[in-house]
Amino acid sequence: MNQFLFGGMPYVLLMTAIIGAIWRFRSNKYTWSSQSSQFLENKTLFFGSFPWHYGIITILLGHIFGIFFPSAILAWNGVPVRLYILELTALSAGFLAFFGLLALIYRRLTNTRVKALTTSWDVLVLIVLLIQVVTGLGNAILYRWGSNWYAGAAVPWIWSIFKLSPNVDYVSNLPLITKTHIFNAMIFIGLIPFSRLAHFVVINPYKYLIRPYQVVRWYRKGGPTPNIVQYK
Amino acid sequence: MDIRAQLSMNFHMDKCIGCHLCSVACKNIWTTRRGAEYMWWNNVETKPGAGYPLTWEDQERYRGGWEVSGGSLRLKLLKGPGKIRTLANIFFQPNLPTVDDYYEPFTFDYQNLFNAPAGDDQPVARPRSLITGEFMEKVVLGPNWDDDMGGSPLYAMNDPNLKGLSESQKEMLTKFHKLFFFYLPRICNHCLNPACVASCPSGAIYKRGEDGIVLIDQDTCRAWRFCVSACPYKKPYYNWANGKSEKCIFCYPRTETGQPNACAHSCTGRIRFVGVLLYDADRIEDTAKTPDERLVEAMRDIILDPNDPRVIAEARKAGIDENWLIAAQQSPAYNLFKKWRISMPNHPEFRTVPMNFYVPPLSPILHQAKSDSGGVFDPESMEFFNAIDKMRVPIRFLANLLSAGNEQVVLESLKKQLAVRMYRRQQRFGDVGESVVKSVLSQVGLTAQDAEDIFRLTALSTVQERFVIPETHREAMTSVDPRTMFEKRGSVGFGPKKKEFLGRTW
Amino acid sequence: MDLKSCKRFFGKGLQLGLGLLLVSGLAPAVAFAADQAAAPAPAVQAAPAAGAAAPVAEAAPAEKGSAAVGKMYFMGAKRFSNGGPPCISCHSAGVGELGGGILGPNLTKVYADESKNPLINSVWINNPSTPVMGPVFSNRNVTDEEVDNLRAFFAEQAKGEVAASSTGTFAIIGLGGFVGILIVFNIIWSGRYRNRNKGTAHDALWRNYGGKGGR
Known about the structure:
The complex is a heterotrimer.
Chain A: H1 2-27, H2 44-68, H3 70-76, H4 80-110, H5 112-117, H6 120-142, H7 146-162, H8 169-172, H9 176-191, H10 205-210, E1 216-217
Helix pairs in contact in A: 1-9, 2-3, 2-4, 3-7, 4-6, 6-9
Chain B: E1 3-12, H1 21-30, E2 43-47, H2 59-62, E3 66-69, E4 72-75, H3 82-88, H4 99-102, E5 106-108, H5 111-115, E6 127-129, H6 167-171, E7 182-186, H7 195-199, E8 205-208, E9 214-216, H8 226-230, E10 237-239, E11 244-246, H9 252-255, H10 262-265, E12 272-280, H11 284-289, H12 295-302, E13 303-304, H13 309-317, H14 322-329, H15 332-339, E14 344-345, E15 357-359, H16 363-373, H17 386-389, H18 395-402, H19 407-428, H20 434-444, H21 448-460, H22 463-466, H23 485-488, E16 500-501, E17 504-505
Parallel strand pairs in B: 1-15
Antiparallel strand pairs in B: 1-12, 2-7, 3-4, 5-6, 8-9, 10-11, 12-13, 14-15, 16-17
Helix pairs in contact in B: 18-19, 19-20, 19-21
Chain C: H1 3-38, H2 40-59, H3 67-75, H4 122-125, H5 133-139, H6 144-158, H7 167-197, H8 201-209
Helix pairs in contact in C: 1-7, 3-6
């Protein structure tokens, strides 16, 4: 069972994500959107979107950083005060995301305009995210110093997946909450190309910081460069 | 010098009768889809009035456009360091108008008129929201909600252009026998310094180099909605159903083949003129930074004379096609804006350097002049333009609307129009006097030929004269779909390709 | 004072009060939780621990390693030479203000526990069959020398008391941080939210007009 969940499913869901993303990007790029509903309702959204995104992005960057630099995290955590600062920051961000997510779910359930736009995919996404955040908070509180044992136990598992020789032992004996968190994360990745989560794969905005304000496209053969720098 | 061509539309507001044919033509072609019901890429507003979306000119509320701070241009959208601040607000935009600022799209439950069971009461068609599909208690806003409400204390009195008007002028807004209003048709201005382009984190919005049309790449748009907030004219619209922004496309499929835009073509008042302008792209930034009082002048400076041999040589070097150069030389837009200087941009103080120009309305002046001096043109008096100060539409109001508060620019245009009328009256009835007409024309800096041309263009012009739109050389283009219109039917346009997968259209 | 300004006044007061309440409530809460964490420990552990710790401390043979170095290994100040994660990740041993991890058993008294004491050796730790540690340390072995130091550290710790788990404190401080972030957000973006809450442009028109109208 563990072998299937943590040895096989990661590949299935990763491939789903990659192939699905390519398929959707190529076949119908038009639908690749964040599907913002701020235009219809922007009061509850203020209390949902801001905390949710700022919280979850902090957490997510932490997780990604941990995958690539586990020893840096362990070194930082060497002094208890630093460990506590890291953990408490992460926990606060987690609560922030949880609060935002609850506000977003509340908004989606109560506002008639937003409800009219809600698809079953959106509901699925919200359920997956709620499970993810709740189990994440559970991990942080009930099995604390997760940043440490994440770097020690979970990251080697992730790398074993990338190296195509999954070592399930790393995660198979972790508590149920943790295992739910891990498995749900993979479902989350698998969902990305099929739902509004597509906007999570942000390809464009980083360019905004380096491009000039104005964009000019030429469609003449041998015309000037695609983007003419008018001014920064 | 970096010469580029720009398609520009000019509106003769004096001739607009507010029939909304342009809006309806545009609506029928482009925005009858789900999520686009509330959009009016072309709309006609009553001025003074609140407009669409309501009070769009009030940038204290919407914070669109640019401002000059510390000698450099930056988006007014958010205070602080521009781009990083923009990205930090990507999750929730403080200044985004909501659907309530436009109006909630609705239809009526007409079926009830037929299907209602027999009863004591007349069946009614209740309004039904097109967003939720539920009945609406009350329709509080709709398309052209303040249409012709020139005297309305609610809508007209809240027009943001009224700032700086004297009390007596404001009083005219509500006194029935004194009130005035005129129409302001609006499409996207296809600005030289568009704020929507500058604010788009995806880089989906772009200005086409060849004809200056500003378009949104629908495949790249990720619904960050900054264009809606940043555009001071509120002309990009957010399609809430598809999660993409859409805007006026200047009917480029029509203009590429030399046909006038749908709105311009359908105009019964023949108020619209479309033509090519040549401009110097190197000077856009300086132009946009010019102080308010010289802004219109700076915009006229950036437009180049298409008959100047140096400009022609540079334009050829820049790759502008020969038929575009010829069109630029015959361009009604150039004549109205630069040569005769009678049209002016809408709200240049937003500093986007808009490329649609408006000829300010004159009609109320004549009426006023008549009643005050006992005749339209008093041959005994040499001061023909005094009446302008007593006109119904206050100059201040027009200046706020069209010239960033510079009354001289508006006065110049109004005097020229008046002079052309005198010139024509002399030709038709001969009761003004040759010498008077001559002195009037020289006072405003027009020649008899100019007056004749202005009259010809604004009163008698044919479709070919009003719309000088050169064809795009599609055979030389890379990114233009080579398929014919017949082959493309059903596969292009707005909206997703229809693919059903697990109950969702992809 | 008309109704509108009354409402705004109350709204502001309520917001300020709530903020103050949170800030003022938080400090005692944290302090209380800290007390909770510290206080019951001796009470609960006093009787059995006093009995158990004393003989072991006497009976324990002198360990080869240094307790100070062992502590550094335990806390992670000094990394295991083969890259294994520090013990504090999952275990508590009475060090650190908020204690150690709680994924694994508490090791404060492990040295005193006769059934477990023999397990503190590199062979057992590196054995792949232990549940969570196994896969981690079988790939990144701890060395004998490191375990010696750890043994010395555990011997030292076994003399002390088992600290209560400070999970509650941790969660409360986390919540406090969350509330703090919200307050900061509120300060930074208060104008923004208020602007939005002034309602639609239509509401603004009606307000200027002086009527209630609209909806």
